[in-house]
Structure of ATP-binding cassette domain-containing protein:
Amino acid sequence: MRAGDALSVENVSHRFGKVEALKDVTLSVPRGAFTALLGVNGAGKTTLFSLITRLYDNTSGVIRVAGHDLRREPSRALARLGVVFQSRALDADLTVMQNLSYHASLHGIPGRNAKARIADVLAQVDLSGKAGARVSSLSGGQSRRAEIARALIHEPDLLLLDEATVGLDVKSRAEVLALTRRLIAERGVSALWATHIMDEIQPDDALVILHRGQVLERGLAADIAGPNGLTRTFLDLTGVEAA
Ligand SMILES: Nc1ncnc2c1ncn2[C@@H]1O[C@H](COP(=O)(O)OP(=O)(O)OP(=O)(O)O)[C@@H](O)[C@H]1O
């Protein structure tokens, strides 16, 4: 692990019975960087996120968030982490403000600070005018941005985003991706962006290619893509065409 990595995963494996979902996975997310985790269905992206968030117990290797070992200092590690799950984490029947107030209190942010904090995160995701709106009334893209606001409420160092653009139209997809990149540039947060969509990756992104539970490549996207481009390289590495 390099000093200053927002996330480091070293030699982590995970099994579901006979299925080896992760095999000796090592990767890192530098501070203040956008890191793409590219893999097709079944690659192991969600399993990795479930270990980092402690939904599953990690019994091999070491995972550190902002330098905190997830097994030795779980509370400190998780306090530095914000997660945007594939499935919805906000209550559709409540307003954006009610949802965020609830999550602020879960993180122990006192009421007097919570209002200012919620106003700040809503401004960060361009939803300042939607505090009083029910989540069910939001568009798909607004709803994802509200989920990102929820993940930012406790000022994490690292955002994990698990296929955050799934189900969105092209315009909303671009907005959510641009927002994440902006948060990195302006707020210094780091992001691990799990995706199966090549178009979401830029040449100067850090990239990890995960396939059938194994890291096949990690480095600068432009270097991994080489002269043949990322689509061809991915196909050559995996034998599978990504989207
Ligand atoms: N709870 C589970 N029980 C048994 N096998 C599982 C379980 N969860 C995942 N797997 C298996 O582990 C492997 C990795 O799955 P995982 O969901 O982590 O991949 P993924 O890259 O997130 O794919 P997707 O994009 O489809 O979610 C797959 O072979 C999957 O079938």
Q: What stands out?
A: The first strand starts at residue 5 and ends at 16.
